[in-house]
Design brief:
With 371 residues, this protein is of the alpha+beta class. It is built from 8 helices and 10 strands. It is elongated.
Length: 371
Amino acid sequence: MAIALLIAGAAKAQPHVPPVFGTDSLSTRLDEMARLYVPPKKIMWVSNDSLVRNTKVLLLPGTGQTEMGKRNMCSLHTTESDTASILLDYGRELHGGLKLVLGSSKPWKPSSVRIRFGESVSEACSQHDGGKRRKGYSTNDHAMRDIVLQIPSDGQIEIGNTGFRFVRIDLLSSDFTIHLKEAPAILRYRNIPYLGSFRCNDERLNEIWMTGAYTVHLNMQEYLWDGIKRDRLIWLGDMHPEVATIMSVFGYNEVVNKSIDLACEQFPLPQWLNGISTYSMWYLIIHHEWYMHNGDISFLQRHRNYITGVIDRIDECVDENGNETLAKQRFLDWPSSPNKAGVEAGCRALLCWAMKDAGKLCEQHVVTIKG
């Protein structure tokens, strides 16, 4: 919760492109996201106290600046037989990566380290599956969470772009010592205030509400993702609960419009959005709820042809007796998939909901857009 409050109070700086880029700046793209450096909250574990020393310095805020030498630094020394390892806890789930600020090493040359990100201690200490989807192993799908790389002496390096709370660092170079001055997590987030709030006399419920709001906030990257680790994609069905949260917590935000725009570009009519007929239904529902909350008529105007196209596409799949042939494979969500009768009933109910909302758009807004 402290991180969310810090985000809410952060000032939004106006970006400027360096003049050396001249007219080339028109083809560049500014990073919409802000960055926050978060030091570890706790040292969870070290492999050997004699190989990993002075770990408490890593819990300090730091300056982000490399310093030559080894004063006030954590040292990791790997021998021929023992690997120096440390496991850091950043206190809560983050989206972003890790920054290492390093002092001198011995010998003075780049060393090899293994960085493992995890949402849990067990994940940060697990082996990855090598792309074979082996049971009991973690994956590197969508976002790399298990990385081997070289790091500099008297320098700094940034690693990773994933979702995590814990980071494990293993020094792989044998007969080698590195001095680690700082190891902050890099929280990458959209710099927006929390406009909505929830408080009650049950602190557990308060924490659940904040966790839900913060989770959606992390997914509001350049586009609205399904997940910060996986899936880092735009799924229209999964967007509905996220958009509902955004309306309640953040109000209007351009990430919703951008994500819907891109989804429609990726799946031009007569395709179903994301290749799933029910997701085109969610598209209609989201449009209605988003307009009723924000009143953005220009966004409806831009989507008029796609909205009416989806309506026509659905209408083509329903005969005069009400029998529909939208899709042979029905899909609502993974947990409900084994319940075939429930999925069938749910798809019909979702169709009714979507067409009612589409009717309201047509009666009140979309048809009048013609004029």
